[in-house]
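User: Could you go from structure to sequence for me? I need the amino acid at each position, not a summary. Structure tokens:
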């Protein structure tokens, strides 16, 4: 996982869950180090971010899926700022953002680092009010994807119901997420 996600996780913990002291405690509990610098385009082991997220969930007495989804809602709008070169300037809604950015960002990551195995993410409109997202990754972070949808919805002042119609956690090859505008 690229360091930028660790940076976003650090910001998330600091802003929503107790500041830098909390971050250092989580880092120490999960990695054995109270201080660590993550560089945005360096690839770090996936297990490290999962350990950090699990440690955060334990500290908050929350289920890991809830923490991952909340983190996704935090990180979604930030990804727009971090990857502006892959976005169209006139995107003004969540559905178009997901359709356009998801594929372009992951394609660019893979192009710059062919060894990298980014998630397979695609989305299409079933109607004006329904978006279908297909997500497949060995990381199985569908909770983060749902959170990203929620976070982008907040960014664009849109409300959705989000339903996962199939999930890798239940034996499916990919997750299918149905997003319906309210």
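Assistant: Here is the amino acid at each position, in order:
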């Amino acid at each position: 996982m690229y360091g930028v996600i660790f940076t976003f996780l650090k910001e998330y913990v600091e802003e929503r869950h107790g500041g830098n002291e909390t971050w250092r405690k989580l880092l120490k509990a999960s990695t054995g180090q109270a201080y660590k610098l993550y560089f945005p385009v360096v690839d770090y082991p996936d297990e490290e971010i999962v350990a950090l997220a699990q440690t955060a969930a334990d500290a908050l007495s929350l289920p890991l899926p809830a923490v991952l989804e909340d983190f996704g809602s935090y990180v979604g709008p930030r990804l727009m700022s971090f990857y502006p070169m892959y976005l169209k300037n006139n995107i003004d809604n969540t559905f178009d953002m997901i359709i356009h950015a998801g594929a372009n960002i992951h394609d660019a990551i893979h192009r710059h680092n062919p060894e990298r195995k980014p998630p397979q993410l695609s989305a299409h409109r079933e109607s004006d009010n329904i978006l279908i997202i297909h997500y497949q990754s060995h990381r199985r972070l569908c909770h983060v994807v749902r959170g990203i949808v929620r976070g982008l919805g907040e960014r664009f002042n849109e409300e959705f119901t989000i339903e996962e119609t199939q999930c890798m956690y239940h034996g499916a090859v990919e997750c299918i997420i149905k997003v319906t505008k309210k």
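One structural detail worth keeping in mind: Residues 3-62 form one domain.
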